[in-house]
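Researcher: Quick test of sequence recovery. C-alpha cells follow.
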C-alpha cells in the first residue's frame, strides 16, 4: 500500500482503479464524484443545476428533522437536511491504487451542531468490476452516540445512450410487500401503497413528482438497475447492494433530471408531528462508548 500522501492536484480528489472500474473520491465530504467502467463510460451523475451533488454521505441525520432541530438534554441544535458530513473536509487516512480511506472526527464546528464525540471513516475501494463504499462509525466518547447514516449515489438515467427513461426498471432482490411513506415538506407523512407489485419497479419521471419513494424496513438488500431494449432485453445493468442499512430511498429531481438516486439508509426523516429527543427518534442508532458499526453499499457493473 502506498503511504498516505496528498490528494490529486485537481480539487483534492483521489483516483482509484481496478482496471475494470475506476472511481474518484473528493476530500470534501468524502464524496464519490466519478464512477467509470473499463471503457471509460461515466455512470455517476456529474452534478448540475437540477442537483449539484454526486453521491453525498448522509450523517448524522438522514432527511430532515422537524424545524431542523436536534433536541438533546434540554438543548436544541440546528442540523439541516442530511446532516453536515457532506459539506466538511475529511482527512486522509490511507491510500493505495485501489483504495482510499478518509475520516471525519468531531471538532469545535461539529460540536456546535451535534454535541457528541464521533469518528466517521469512509473506506472506498474497487476490485474487479465492483465498487465498495464502507461507512465506519466509531464512538470514542464516554456516553451514547445517537445517529443515522445513509448513502445517496446518483446514477445516470438513461443508463444506456439512446434508451428512453421509461425503458428502465429496478429489479428488487426480494419481493417488497410493505408500504411506502409519503413525503410532506421533507418530513415523512402517512403510509401509502408501493407503486409496484412484487420485485420489479418500472421507472418513470412521474414517480418522483412529489419527492422520493421511501421504503422503510426494505426486505431487499439489492436492486438491479436495468436499461431495456424494446423487446425487453437488458442492454445495460448495474447492481447496487448493501449491508447494515435497513431502509431505502429512490429519488430523482422532478421535471426530467437525468439521474436516479438509489439510497440505502439507516434511519429516515422525522415523521410529521414528531419533535422529541433525538436519541428517541424512530430509526436512530444508539452506539455505546467504544463501539464501532459498519455500513456498506456496493455497485457491481
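Model:
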Amino acid at each position: 500500500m502506498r503511504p498516505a500522501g496528498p490528494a490529486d492536484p485537481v480539487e483534492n480528489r483521489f483516483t482509484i482503479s481496478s482496471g475494470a472500474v475506476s472511481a474518484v473520491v473528493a476530500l470534501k465530504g468524502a464524496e464519490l464524484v466519478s464512477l467509470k467502467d473499463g471503457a471509460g463510460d461515466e455512470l455517476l451523475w456529474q452534478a448540475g443545476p437540477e442537483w449539484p451533488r454526486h453521491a453525498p454521505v448522509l450523517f448524522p441525520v438522514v432527511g430532515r428533522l422537524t424545524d431542523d432541530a436536534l433536541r438533546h438534554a434540554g438543548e436544541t441544535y440546528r442540523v439541516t437536511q442530511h446532516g453536515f458530513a457532506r459539506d466538511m473536509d475529511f482527512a486522509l487516512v490511507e491510500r493505495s491504487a485501489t483504495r482510499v480511506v478518509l475520516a471525519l472526527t468531531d471538532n469545535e464546528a461539529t460540536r456546535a451542531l451535534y454535541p457528541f464525540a464521533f469518528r466517521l471513516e469512509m473506506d472506498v475501494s474497487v476490485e474487479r468490476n465492483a465498487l465498495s463504499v464502507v461507512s465506519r462509525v466509531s464512538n470514542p466518547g464516554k456516553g451514547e452516540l445517537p445517529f443515522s447514516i445513509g448513502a445517496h449515489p446518483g446514477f445516470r438515467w438513461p443508463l444506456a445512450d439512446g434508451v428512453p427513461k421509461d425503458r428502465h426498471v429496478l429489479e428488487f432482490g426480494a419481493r417488497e410487500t410493505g408500504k411506502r411513506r409519503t413525503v410532506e415538506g421533507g418530513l415523512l407523512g402517512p403510509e401509502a401503497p408501493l407503486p409496484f407489485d412484487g420485485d420489479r419497479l418500472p421507472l418513470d419521471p412521474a414517480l418522483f413528482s412529489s419527492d422520493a419513494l421511501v421504503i422503510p424496513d426494505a426486505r431487499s438488500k439489492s436492486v438491479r438497475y436495468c436499461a431495456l431494449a424494446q423487446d425487453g432485453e437488458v442492454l445495460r445493468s448495474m447492481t447496487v447492494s448493501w449491508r447494515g442499512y435497513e431502509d431505502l430511498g429512490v429519488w430523482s429531481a422532478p421535471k426530467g433530471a437525468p439521474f436516479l438516486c438509489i439510497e440505502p439508509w439507516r434511519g429516515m426523516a422525522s415523521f410529521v408531528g414528531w419533535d422529541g429527543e433525538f436519541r428517541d427518534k424512530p430509526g436512530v442508532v444508539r452506539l455505546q462508548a467504544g463501539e464501532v458499526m459498519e455500513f456498506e453499499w456496493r455497485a457491481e457493473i
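Confidence is low (pLDDT under 50) at residues 1-6.
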